[in-house]
Amino acid sequence: MKSQALQPRLALFVLTRALFVLAITMLAGATTPGINGKIAFSFDATGQIYTINPDGTGLFQLTDVNGSAYSPDWSPDGRRIAFSFDDDTHGGIAIINADGTDFHDLTPTGLHAQPAFTPDGHHLVYECVDCSGGDGIFLMRDDASDFPGLRLTTNPFPGEGDSNPEVSPDGKTVTFVRHQVDGELQALFAVDIDGTNERQVVPYTFEVAIKHDWAPDGGHIALTLYGDSPDRHSPEVATIRPDGSDLRILTRYREGKVVTPVGSYSPDGRWIAFRKRTPGTFGLWVMSPDGGNRKLIANFPFAPRFIDWGPKPANDTRDNSEAATIGNQTALVSEAVISGPNATLSPTSLTFSTQVIGTTSAAKTVTLKNTGTAILTISSIAITGINAGDFAQTHNCGSSLATGASCSISVRFKPTALGTRTATLSISDNAAGSPQKVPLSGIGTTAKLSPVSLSFSTQAIGTTSPVKTVTLTNVGTTSLTITSIAVTGTNVGDFAQTHTCGSSLAAGASCSISVKFKPTASGTRIAALSITDNAAGSPQKVSLSGTGALGTVVTLAPTSLSFSCFFTCFRFCHWSCTPPQTVSLTDAGSATLYITDITTTGLFSQTNNCGTSLGAKQSCNITVSAHPPNQCGTYTGAVAINDTGTGSPQKVALTEKACP
Q: Is the pTM of this model over 0.90?
């Protein structure tokens, strides 16, 4: 009866969700591009957002927040801008009119960032850093009346995030950047607007920058790639189709380490805005989608970031020909926009992985740079805020920084209590906006996982790896209630787990979780081991990774060996066995064979010269020795080779006859 009672409610939920998504996608036509409007961007040096006309005139400071504002996104009607900001209390999302009036903080608590409007202009996609269930992309109304809204993604890597969502022009797809390995690897992913059908668009090897943008016709995505740069400091602007095909590199500015991050397509689809650095200045430039016809809009002494190009609103007084003017070949915006010492911090916030109470995290680094025209005098660098005792910092900044110089501040997290812990890295100096602040956050927990990541060796498709073990320990003083232990994430079907944990774990007790890898496809395969419990930071996660490889044919010659052992007495009694014998292992395929281990069972041992891999058509030798038993009889064993070949582990049957 209970399940029958739930059926109408479940049907209503499914219908409501479907209508909600349909309403967003049906209104996509309202965002059809028109005349090009203003370009919005942020300066890290001032911590504010600015707008400028596409002909380089009309530079206007839009925001005046106590902290830093960044990541602007225009509404489809060109009247409003959604953006991220950090202040003394939280990292939030706000909306402001294009003239700088009517500021609304949509998320007065927590950590939220990188909003983007949907085509209907009434919803936002954004990153929620500290929402229940972990970091991910959410969809909510533009007035936050349904906050946090519908969860679209969950990052499977502990302590990592999904960021910078963008919505396709038809309103059906959300693209976003997925981070792993302390944010050092970034790939572009996509998910349907209802949170289903998640897929990877470009691989992690491309190392995409966080900012990307859809072409107004939905045919291409503009993005910045670091993977094509040997020093990861000279990224290149590229375009790619939403299915990951037709990659085109548009810029080649390697010389002089000129940085060219992408910004935004123009509303008419004829231009891509980007930033180009030359010695002593940063230029806001545009080019056609094929990489040609490049024009300078304006030069600045500091880098314009998170560039977003809006449509011309109905109340724009410029005529269409004036608004359509692109570029100003003589533009040189006064470098007096920001003068004197200027303190720039990167990154502007730090989020630590869930950490066991009383243990210290790995360090995260903040770079302080003087991007001004005078010496930056540093009075103090300290941790302040609610949970200041949970964070610690060290630095090499000294008491001053010359123009253009930088220094590093290392921050560690050591929680003293359960739950979300927050503080602020505060730098007091003689620059405008002092003290400059970096919000800090992390979660303290009593559920300890060791290790926090598992990386499997290359494994042949369809074959199963040896087991790797994760230990879950309850370091708290009360029982840990375990709701579920499961594999989640992108390639969930490639990993499997078993465990000894039961439904609860007493204080101080531990249990084991065994994980195996059985790839279903070639290439990098990722997932997460997710433990849902009543500890803070639940679900706790262990990142899983491995590489699937096309299996190769392995031959063994011979496939069995027989030995004899004799017990003789002449003056004294002793056992003697026939000499060692050799098995030849050959990679008979066309791909490299990766060898995990070679072992024996029974009264046998082996030595080999095979190493950890064997090239196609190459061979190696395994020498097997028999050891005497305690009494006469027939004994069996085997040589087992665990590798990426088909049928792994391959085996050689061993027989020993004592007293034949």
A: no
